[in-house]
Amino acid sequence: MAEADITLESRVDVTLAAELRSTLDMALSGEGTLSVDAAAVEQVDTAGIQLLLALRQEAERRGRAFAWQAASPALQDTARRLGLEAQLGLPPAAVSTED
């Protein structure tokens, strides 16, 4: 498997939003598919989901495909609870259905 353009740490939340935004902006400057490895994410809040959604939308606006290399259960569950799994492009089979 190819190396991801972005590898997320265990936390994706409001306390790290500015730092993460800088990393995401740098990744957007490339070409081809923008891949994100979110396997290590253990904690994600609404601000983190918003940032990831903005990343996906901006990649598509720039004509770049967006792909999840991996998405942790925490990310999948938070996206599902917010009703944003489809907008984030998470595959339906990977999204938890447990409450």
Automatic annotation (TrEMBL):
<dbReference type="InterPro" id="IPR002645">
    <property type="entry name" value="STAS_dom"/>
</dbReference>
<dbReference type="InterPro" id="IPR052746">
    <property type="entry name" value="MlaB_ABC_Transporter"/>
</dbReference>
<protein>
    <recommendedName>
        <fullName>STAS domain-containing protein</fullName>
    </recommendedName>
</protein>
<dbReference type="Pfam" id="PF13466">
    <property type="entry name" value="STAS_2"/>
</dbReference>
<feature type="domain" description="STAS">
    <location>
        <begin position="6"/>
        <end position="99"/>
    </location>
</feature>
<dbReference type="InterPro" id="IPR058548">
    <property type="entry name" value="MlaB-like_STAS"/>
</dbReference>
<dbReference type="InterPro" id="IPR036513">
    <property type="entry name" value="STAS_dom_sf"/>
</dbReference>
